[in-house]
From TrEMBL:
It is an enzyme of class 2 (transferase). Keywords: ATP-binding, Kinase, Mitochondrion, Nucleotide-binding, Phosphoprotein, Transferase, Transit peptide. Its EC number is 2.7.11.-. This is Protein-serine/threonine kinase. It is found in: Mitochondrion matrix. Residues 38-60 are annotated as: Disordered. GO terms for biological process: regulation of glucose metabolic process. It comes from Pestalotiopsis fici (strain W106-1 / CGMCC3.15140). Coiled coil: none annotated. Belongs to the PDK/BCKDK protein kinase family. GO terms for cellular component: mitochondrial matrix. Its main location: mitochondrion. GO terms for molecular function: ATP binding; pyruvate dehydrogenase (acetyl-transferring) kinase activity. Residues 288-455 form the Histidine kinase domain.
Length: 458
């Protein structure tokens, strides 16, 4: 079978090579080697940095105190506020301390949410594994909680902790889904959907915070080495960490559509056609990985419906409509780049206030629409349009949790998978966007994806 997802770096060549920390033999060696090669001594203190212990015991009071604190609502403006790459040392330390101020609180909130599940559910080996992963990650951050990162050595050590955190939680969703599937007698589908919706939104932010600092680490003046980054950090002037400040949705649409069309051709022997209209030259600031995931899932649904509705002569039409410029807040003032380093040239970065603040993308297919009995269930994690033929070994048709839990089995299908819409909606809504579905049964479906950009930057 063709793998369901290919490495995201292959989908958009302009984004460069994208590698996950799991691909590194040792994220710690990768980071710590910088202290002896490319990192000058920029210590702000005469005292030698003393590395804190790698872990600390997490007590009930630690979880209670942190989970009672307000969880900062992350915005794209938060992620770009430390300046344009390459960051100066002080800006890099500021990014590290900002990251440190957010992550322990976020991890504690997730631990508390898992504790609030029925005891028999948390006792499940898979859900217990995720619970222990969160405890471990919090234990690696607690020793840093009352420190200020103010020198290069400390920043390197902290970034290695973030690399481990990202690696530890890479398979959280399939493992959770398998656990909930095994506990279906003890927790209702409504409770599962509510928990996963909240958990996904929290996980998106937590992972993005960590990956953004790792990417800024490698695109800083101190550690400049984009090729070594285990997270998206291409040597491209429009990028600030994992954010592309001049992302062209039309390019992403074509790249994702080509990939989905390949799967269709393999499975059905038919390659659907698509048309991009509206304003395809639109560009705005967004996270390419998020848009790639959302569009891949939505196009899989549209292409499959087009083929199975025996209407493959009709192209899927993707319309790109930028929002009018927003003169209001938020406004962010960026520090200039530390120096001319590699491809990061200040004059090459298009000012964000020249970009549209947001974009709406409509995906229209003539695949027959969604039947009235199915339509109310499309946002549920306990529903899928998967059939017996499509299901991975051991998966139950009609249950999206089965599909998610088998996501790492290497199987692939063009089927909607059920969880594509709720997961995509979680990504879209995270920064103030959303997804709406309008279906005309017997005719076709329109899906509206609204994405909110970063706003004005000075």
């Amino acid at each position: 079978m063709i793998p369901l997802r290919r490495p995201l770096g292959q989908m958009l060549p302009r984004a460069g090579s994208i590698r996950h920390p799991a691909a590194l033999k040792s994220p710690f060696d990768q980071l710590c080697r910088l202290s002896s090669t490319s990192a000058p001594d920029l210590s702000l203190s005469d005292k030698k940095w003393s590395q804190p212990p790698s872990t600390a015991t997490v007590t009930d009071s630690d979880v209670a105190n942190l989970s009672n604190q307000h969880q900062h609502s992350l915005s794209l403006a938060d992620l770009v506020k430390h300046g344009r790459p390459p960051l100066a040392a002080q800006s890099l330390f500021s990014s590290a301390n900002f990251t440190l101020s957010l992550l322990p609180i976020r991890l504690a909130h997730r631990i508390q949410a898992l504790r609030n599940l029925p005891f028999i559910v948390v006792s499940n080996p898979n859900i217990s594994k995720i619970y222990n992963n969160y405890l471990h990650s919090l234990s690696t951050l607690l020793p840093w909680k009352h420190r200020t990162i103010s020198n290069v050595e400390g920043e390197i050590q902290f970034t290695s902790v973030l690399a481990e955190l990202v690696h530890t939680h890479q398979d959280t969703i399939p493992i959770l889904a398998k656990g909930f599937l095994e506990c279906r007698r003890y927790i209702s589908p409504t409770e599962v959907t509510r928990f996963l919706d909240e958990h996904l939104r929290a996980r998106i932010g937590t992972r993005l915070i960590a990956e953004q600092h790792i990417a800024l680490h490698y695109s800083s003046a101190v550690h400049f080495d984009p090729a070594a980054s285990p997270t998206p950090c291409p040597e491209h002037p429009s990028f600030i960490g994992v954010i592309d400040t001049a992302l062209c949705p039309a390019d992403v649409v074509d790249s994702c559509a080509n990939w989905v069309a390949e799967i269709c051709e393999y499975k059905y022997g038919i390659r659907p056609r698509w048309i991009v209209d509206g304003e395809p030259d639109t560009a705005f600031a967004y996270v390419p990985m998020h848009l790639e995931y959302i569009l891949t899932e939505l196009l899989k649904n549209a292409f499959r419906a087009t083929i199975e509705g025996r209407n493959s002569k009709e192209p899927v039409v993707i319309t790109i409509a930028p929002e009018p410029p927003d003169a209001g807040p938020p406004k962010v003032k960026l520090d200039p780049p530390a120096e001319n380093k590699g491809a990061f040239r200040s004059e090459a970065i298009k000012p964000l206030d020249d970009n549209a603040p947001g974009v709406t993308i409509r995906i229209r297919d003539r695949g027959g629409g969604i039947s009235p009995e199915v339509l109310p269930n499309v946002w549920s994690y306990s529903f899928t349009t998967f059939s017996e033929e499509d299901s991975p070994a051991g998966a139950n048709p009609g249950d999206a949790l089965s599909v998610i839990s088998n996501a790492n089995s290497g199987g692939s299908s063009i089927a909607g998978l059920g969880y594509g819409l709720p997961l995509s909606r979680a990504y879209a809504e995270y920064f103030g966007g959303g997804i709406a579905v309008q279906s005309l049964h017997g005719w076709g479906t329109d899906v509206y994806l609204r994405l909110k950009g970063v706003g004005k930057i000075q």
